[in-house]
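Lab meeting tomorrow. Look over both lines:
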Amino acid sequence: MIFDQISNIGRYGLLRVAAVVAFLETYDVQTPAPREFEILGRELFVRSSAYETRSPGEGKFEAHQVYADIQVVLQGAEIMQVADPEGLAPLTAYDAAADCRFFAASKGISDILVPQGSFVMFFPGEAHRPCCHPPSGKAMVRKLVFKVRI
């Protein structure tokens, strides 16, 4: 996992980051993007979303096997939780079409406050629960999630 400011994303020369940087440099934050947009086919694509954050109990931890997530908060702020693999209990079987498996976590949960202008990279196998309320309570968030085939 990597947590940093969007302005530093170019430091991470892995994960086709140059294509992510090029997309972000031309992306108009004020114009809603299509729900999903292919940048390098299914090797690198991005999903756009806008939502109100939720309490952690309303969400599940998720982990992927094929894709890494680069979650970029454009507006608002949210908590993204990560969990120790030893504290995970599978809730579903792995769904290959969605590249996702859901988990409950009983220990080793850490909160990351991700403000506007920041991003978090989650690598395959790293359980995370995004979209949680920041300390100030419910918030509206606009976010891009880049899916990078590993």
Helices lie at 17-26. The two ends are 14 Å apart (CA to CA). The longest strand covers residues 140-149. The mean pLDDT is 92.
